[in-house]
Amino acid sequence: MAIRFVTGNDGKVREARDYLEGIESVEQLAYDYTEVQSDSLAEIATRGAREAFEHLGSDEPVLVDDAGLFVDALGGFPGPYSSYVEDTVGVERLWRLAADEENRRAQFRTVLAYADESGTETFEGSVAGTLVAPRGEGGFGYDPIFEYNGQTMAEMSTEEKNAISHRGRALAAFAEWYAGRDD
Ligand code: ITT
Ligand code: NA
Prior knowledge:
Elements: E1 3-6, H1 10-20, E2 26-29, H2 41-56, E3 62-71, H3 82-88, H4 91-99, E4 105-116, E5 119-131, E6 146-148, E7 151-152, H5 158-164, H6 166-180
Parallel strand pairs: 1-2, 1-3
Antiparallel strand pairs: 3-4, 4-5, 5-6, 6-7
Helix pairs in contact: 1-5, 1-6, 5-6
Bound molecules: inosine 5'-triphosphate and sodium ion (NA).
């Protein structure tokens, strides 16, 4: 049964399709679930997946992904507000904020929430890296300023990014659970 990935972000869908190829097909669905005000990616993703599943009807499961960039020297900012900050401040100016700091460590985190008629499950992934001046044409969002092992995520192929990224790790946990569930 196809999984409906509820997101407006094509990059997330490309990564999920690449990872889940041969396991399950992924359809992108634009439904604007309520993004609750919360510091917790898990809470945002869980409530979003539940709401989307109930609202959309049919028995096809849904997947929601709530992600953020957490900059150590900025107290974890922009974190759960990463989407808003990308749209307002932008990636380049966030880099300039971090460039003033000695400590340029940051983490990407994501929570995938899967909802079907039997409930909701969450899968988390994170990756630690270093913020750098923008490089690379691939990926999306903050990828050009996030360096891992000498490469920015925008310099990686989808497959390379999935092998080390927050989303790749969450997709790995999801795929393992999905293969073993009984229905
Ligand atoms: P949906 O909510 O519709 O899924 P979104 O892009 O708003 O799409 P998020 O709220 O989860 O998704 O994303 C938070 C921000 O973090 C947003 O600016 C993304 O571009 C960025 N982001 C998420 N995952 C990323 C990744 O793997 N690499 C770079 N930036 C990422
Ligand atoms: Na969002």
